[in-house]
Amino acid sequence: MQANSRAYFLLIAFLSFGAVAFAVYLQMAEGYQPCPLCIMQRFAFLGIGIFSLLAVVAQNTRTLWQGLGMLSGVAGIAVAGYHVSLLLNPKASCGIDPLENWVNQLPTARVLPQLFYSDGLCTAELPPILGLSIPAWSLIWLVSLTLTLAVGLIRREKHFR
Q1: Which of 97, 111, 136, 144 could lock onto 132 through a cystine, CB 3.0 to 4.6 A?
Q2: Which residues contact 119 (CB under 8 A, 6 or more apart)?
Q3: What is the model's pLDDT at position 46?
Q4: 2-158, what's its fold?
């Protein structure tokens, strides 16, 4: 698959939306309540997915959408990295009250509460998936998707020089 092709961006969008779908599955089927940091990571995955879809349909502004997707990924990496650090240092607080209130006041939490309403604790002990915590998996996927977008952008720039 060629970097910056439609299939390339569709795959990135599919993986991003798949990560959100898996998070919703864990919430609905397994009963894991998302914390505010989890919701912000969902926003990052959705940003990557939406901007990747826009890159598919708007070929002449593809670099813009690719850059915005990378920006979403970088923001998600920061949030997921902080979340992982909280799990490694459970005595720290995630600021549950102000952050949870802010996340739950967003219009998305009112329109789609099943997807964007925060009701969990950032330091909740959840069973690991293949030996890693859910925020660690989120961090891995966010780094992978962001790097994939960055490599595609670098290859595109080299191709046009």
Answers
A1: 136
A2: 33, 34
A3: 95
A4: Bromodomain-like (1.20.1550)
